Amino acid sequence: MASTNQGGKQPLLEKLQEQGAQLVDNVQGSQAWSSIFRPGSIFRKGYTDSPRNRSYVIMNSVLYHLHPVKVKRHAVKVSYTLCLGGLSFFLFLLLTVTGIFLMFFYRPTAAQAWDDIYTLQTSVTFGLLIRNMHRWAAHLMVLSVFLHMARVFYHGAYKAPREFNWVIGVILLTLTLLLSFTGYLLPWDQLALWAVTVGTNMMGFTPVFGNEVRFVLLGGTEIGTDTLLRWYVLHVLFVPFVTVIFMAIHFWRVRKDGGISGPL
Q1: What secondary structure does DSSP assign to 198-263, as a single string?
Q2: Nearest 10 degrees: CA dihedral of 56, 59, 61, 64?
Q3: What is the pLDDT of residue 8?
Q4: What ranges in 29-111 are assigned the alpha helix state H?
Q5: Long-range CB contacts (< 8 A, 24+ apart) of 79-87?
Q6: pTM for the full model?
Q7: Which one of 50, 124, 167, 219 has the lowest number of neighbouring Cβ atoms within 10 Å?
Q8: Is pLDDT of 264 > 60?
């Protein structure tokens, strides 16, 4: 009787293992999996785990792809790329440098924020110039990132095997808009106060946890110094940090997926 039960369980176990292996093969063979895990990744189907292949994965890291040995000639033509990706990156660096300068003269409190901005524009040497550079660079970055994505879409460069990098680009566009919006609030003038009011009210309608999100962003139930401090931290620390991470992945995948040309 014991042998019969054991014999009945064995085929069932083998069947479950076979179905599990088939499910794994189907997932790893799907287009979504192939777009995320490119050749050279230990998660790709058919990868042989060996010391040599492990070193190959390490050599294909982000840092090594930032400066490739060879680049396709047509992929660097200004008439094709319009240098929109490079322009977006340059504007991000410009915003970083000018933003650090502005941080020396700005205090994120409701009582002092506007006075600091006014002092920066009227009493600090080159203060008005640096602030305008920061403001216009932010506007131009939003425009250049949008045009860059439009160029990629027009040339069909979002298609396989670049689908995952297109998703990264969409995330970067969202982060760019967040950087612009959070910086728009820092002067703490009437425009900023109404922008905070409208933005937090919109987020308050998020399903399930909308009220909690609004409370966290406001730092309480009303707009005040805590609100400004939270948006300041988002603007100068959290959002830029996340943006740098996604930019590094984006640059790496541009090289890894075969340049910036159209669909293969």
Answers
A1: HHHHHHHTSTTTHHHHHHHHHTSSS-SHHHHHHHHHIIIIIHHHHHHHHHHHHHHHHHHTTTTSS-
A2: -150
A3: 58
A4: 31-36, 51-59, 62-65, 78-81, 84-103
A5: 80/155, 81/151, 81/260, 82/147, 82/151, 84/144, 84/145, 84/147, 84/148, 84/151, 85/148, 85/254, 85/260, 87/144, 87/148
A6: 0.79
A7: 50
A8: no
Q: Is 215 exposed, middle or buried (0-12, 13-18, 19+ CB in 10 A)?
A: middle
DSSP count for the chain of H helices, then E strands? 13, 0
Is-contact 152 166, C-beta < 8 A? yes
Residue 105 lies in a domain: yes
pLDDT above 50 (res 158): yes
Write the pLDDT tens digit of every residue in 28-86. Answer: 778 787 777 765 555 555 556 677 666 665 556 555 555 555 666 766 677 778 889 99
Same domain, residue pair 37 and 90: no
Query: Are both 164 and 126 inside the same structural domain?
Result: yes
Both 102 and 233 in one domain: the answer is yes
Domain around 160: 73-256
Report d(CA 239, CA 141) in Å as an integer.
Answer: 15
Report pLDDT digits (tens) over 117-143: 999 999 999 999 999 999 999 999 999
User: How many domains does the structure of the chain reveal?
Assistant: 2
The answer as to whether 198 is a domain residue is yes
Q: Answer positive or negative: Cα dihedral of 236, 241, 242, 248.
A: positive
> Could you tell me if 113 and 25 lie in one domain?
no
Kindly state whether residues 236 and 107 are assigned to the same domain. Answer: yes
Do 114 and 161 fall within a single domain? yes
